[in-house]
Structure formats: C-alpha cells, structure tokens
Design a protein that fits this description.
It is built from 18 helices and 14 strands. The protein has 442 residues and is of the alpha/beta class. The protein starts with 7 loop residues before the first strand and ends in an 8-residue tail after the last strand. The site of nicotinamide-adenine-dinucleotide has 27 residues, from helix 1 and helix 5.
C-alpha cells in the first residue's frame, strides 16, 4: 500500500540539491536521513554548520534536526534501512569528453542496493543522461533480493533561491514506469503542490531528458542575448532597450534575457556539454547547443577584453577591483564563474586584482589563494583601483554611492558586466562607462 502519512526518506549526497531536498521533505513532516561520504561535511551538519550558503537553509536544517525529523550520517545502510524513498543526489560532473561522469551515481546505486531492507523507490534527483535509470536498475538488481522501483525526478531548483523553488515548485516531473513508484512519489510531493496539481508524470527517459532540455533552453536564451549584445555594440543599439522590446511579447516573456559576462555555475556548462555528448552517442549533432556553448566561451572573455582595450593592452601596474565573484547572486558557488576567467585574463596582462563578494570570498580563496587580494567592504575594494568591474549583481552593488566611488577610484572607469547601472548618468558624473551591448561606446 502506498503511504499517505509521513514517509521514511533517505537522501544520498548532501550537497546543494540533497541538503535542500532533505530539509524540505523533513519540514513537511517526513523522517529524513541525509547520507554523504564526506565525513567533515556530515560532522559539520551535526553541529548545525552549513557546508554551503543558501538563504534560509541553516534555519530549516536546525529546526528539523531539533524536531527529530532530520539526521545526518555517513553510513548508507543506516539511512536506507526501512526507507520507502531513496533519493540519489550525488554529483554528475563532466568527464574529459564532456559527457556526464556517472561514477558517483553508480557507486551510490550499488551502496543503496546492498542496503535495501524491503521495497523502496530509488529516485534519481541528480541530472543524468537518458538511459541512466535503466543502468541503475541493472546495478541494484545484481545486489539485492528485494523488489524496488527506479524513478527519475529531476530537480529544477535555482541556487540562491533554492528553498523557495523546492517548497513551491513550478512543476514536479516524475518519470517512472511502474504504478507503485508513481503513486509513492505522488504522495510524497502532494504537500508541495496543494494549490494546483503541478505533477507531470511521464516515462523515465522523457523525464531524464526534460532536465537537459530545460537547462539548454535557458542557456540558449542567455547566449542569444549575449550574441545580440555584441551586435548592438557594432550597430550603436542598446541591448537593454532591445531586451525590453522583445521580452514584452507574451510569446517570448521577460525572463532570462539579460546580456552579461556569460553563464557559469555547476549546471548550465556541464549540462549543455552532457546534452551534446548524449546526441553524439546516438549520432545526432545538436547544432544549436554547440553554438550556445561557443558563444558563451567567447562571452566569458568579453569583459576582460574591454578592460584590455581601454588600457591599450597593458595592465602592468594597474589595479583592477572586481565586485562579485560568485557565478550569480545569492550563492557562494564559484564553479565556472565568469569572474575567475576575468581574473586570469587581467592577471596575465600584468594587473593586480582585488575582489569582494558578500559570501563567495572563502570559496575563491580556497581555489586561487593569493592570486588576488580580498576586501570585505566594496568601497575598500575600489580604493586606489584603476578600474572597477562589476561581475555579479548582488543587491548591495546595485545602488552604490558613485560620489564616494569617484573619490576612491584612482581612475573613474567602470565596467558594468551586468548592465545594472545607468550609462548616461555615470558619464554625466564623469565616469568612463562600459556596459555589455550598450551602444557604440560600450
Ligand atoms: N546545484 C544545483 O543548483 C542543481 C540544481 C539541479 C540539479 N542539480 C544536479 O544535482 C546533482 C547534485 O548537484 P549538487 O550541486 O548538489 O552537487 P554537490 O557537489 O554540491 O553535492 C554532491 C554530494 O554528493 C556526495 N557524494 C558523492 N558520492 C557519494 C556517495 N557514493 N554516497 C554519498 N554521498 C556521495 C558528495 O560528497 C557531495 O557532498 C548534480 O547532478 C547536479 O547536476 C544541481
């Protein structure tokens, strides 16, 4: 019988997705155990220390631990024993050829299979290529005598707003081919979709592809706008006006149409490469996605090229201030962050870089150490700099005191990588302003 009351859930992998999902399911009253192979991470979580920055997550985790609904372990067998739902939320990083590296998923599936104590649905929340569910099924079958289901339930949360996305999803995609798995997952997600039924039940392969399709479409919009922004600079048009003009068409919509320094993060770059690789495996070339990736690679260098052009290619002795290091606001994730590409470019040309970010400085320090200098305060960061480059549009950067900046900067030169400031106002105030796709002088 399918449960209609609190369920026992085990989450394998306690990163951005696993921790948010585990805390979210616990908050709805379920009994959740989160497992990870990373002992320090689990020890920290037991002490109430979050391994990632995600607004509101610490409170949700601490409350649910205190209520006895959420616990952490490195022992998969303890987590899986008696669970009706086991979520796989481990990483699927890119392999050398761009395809998704599934070693963590397969290892987790084997561990879960060995630990099953009765029927459970094993749910892939990680982003995996089409057909992975079939392979998981085969792996688990080999190591257990119990019946089980395998489902795909891709996660669509956005880092920086992950709790909101998880608790109030636009839709829940359930890909499964057996009735018991479908009914169990319907029951699990019912409290999250009370306002209206937003559950889309489909076959497993279609669900697996849906996640790649969604991320590919979003990334396509970004690269399309970046391509247009570059054209705007050659034609003397302003991408911000073009964006509003096209985005107000209901068929297009206003979201994901911002020009910028290219997309980064842990999902779009790797998922696009994996989608391209999936096509290649079956002899199909996804030409649009090839172009989306190529445009993005070019775009990530654009801000650095503008800085180099302004200083005529010579940055020796120049100090460049960077506001925003995370790949987007609201997160400390710096995987494939455009700011790191900019750092490489300007440091290679001889510049000294000083960076600031409300939450990502520790992560950057871990990755690149003293290759750059760090400043907690954004005005201190700008002090004595020959130029200021805005890379991540955190709220606190949106309306700075430009009077103060003018006195602090050695040269009043601004590179606005996110088009958050007004070029006319800044030029009138005596700044040299560069945006992304904002007319001939951009
Ligand atoms: N980060 C996002 O915004 C996001 C959104 C939607 C989907 N996804 C997908 O979800 C998956 C996880 O992404 P993430 O960003 O949460 O990854 P992450 O790297 O933050 O976390 C993965 C965790 O899995 C653990 N792990 C690896 N092997 C394990 C094993 N055998 N047993 C237990 N734990 C194990 C790691 O130690 C790590 O803590 C990826 O496939 C990703 O593409 C991510």
């Amino acid at each position: 019988m399918v449960a209609f009351s609190a369920m026992k859930i085990c989450v394998i992998g306690t990163g951005y997705v696993g921790l948010v999902a585990g805390a979210g399911f616990a908050d709805m009253g379920n009994d959740v155990v989160c497992c990870d192979i990373d002992q320090p991470k689990i020890d920290g979580l037991k002490r109430g220390e979050m391994p990632i920055y995600e607004p509101g997550l610490d409170k949700l985790v601490v409350n649910n631990v205190a209520e006895g609904r959420l616990s952490f372990t490195t022992n998969v067998a303890d987590g899986v024993a008696g669970a009706e739902v086991v979520l796989l939320a481990v990483g699927t990083p890119p392999g050398p050829d761009g395809s998704a590296d599934l070693k963590y998923i397969f290892k987790a599936a084997e561990d879960v299979g060995q630990a099953l104590t009765g029927w459970a649905v094993i749910v892939t929340k990680s982003t995996v290529p089409v057909g992975t569910g079939d392979k998981i099924e085969a792996i688990v079958k080999k190591v257990t005598k119990h019946e089980f289901g395998v489902a795909s339930n891709p996660e669509f949360l956005k880092e920086g707003d992950a709790l909101n996305d998880f608790m109030k999803p636009d839709r829940v995609v359930i890909g499964a081919d057996d009735k018991r798995s479908i009914e169990t997952l319907r029951s699990l997600y019912a409290p999250f979709t009370r306002t209206s039924d937003r559950m889309l039940v489909m076959d497993r392969r279609s669900a697996e592809l849906t996640k790649y399709a969604a991320n590919s479409m979003l990334a396509t919009r970004i690269s399309f706008m970046n391509d247009l922004a570059n054209l705007c600079e050659l034609l003397g048009a302003d991408i911000e006006l073009v964006r509003k003009g096209m985005g107000s068409d209901n068929r297009i919509g206003p979201k994901f149409l911002f020009a910028g320094p290219g997309f980064g993060g842990s999902c779009f770059p790797k998922d696009l490469r994996a989608a391209i690789s999936t096509g290649r495996d079956v002899g199909y070339r996804l030409e649009i996605l090839d172009a989306v990736v190529a445009v993005n690679e070019r775009q990530k260098k654009k801000l650095g090229e503008k800085i180099l052009a302004h200083f005529k290619g010579d940055l020796k002795g120049k100090r460049i201030a960077i506001w925003g290091l995370a790949f987007k606001p609201g997160t400390d994730d710096i995987r494939e962050a455009p700011a790191l590409v900019l750092v490489d470019q300007v440091v290679a040309a001889g510049a000294t870089v000083v960076g600031t970010d409300p939450v990502a400085m520790e992560a950057v320090r871990k990755q690149i150490g003293d290759r750059i200098q760090y400043e907690e305060n954004n005005y201190e960061c700008a002090k004595g700099a020959d130029a200021l480059a805005l890379v991540t549009e955190w709220h606190e950067f949106r309306r700075p005191s430009f009077e103060r900046l003018k006195t602090l900067l050695k040269q009043p030169v601004i590179f606005d990588g996110r088009n958050i400031w007004n070029p006319a106002e800044l030029r009138a105030a005596g700044f040299t302003y560069y945006g992304m796709g904002r007319g001939k002088s951009a």
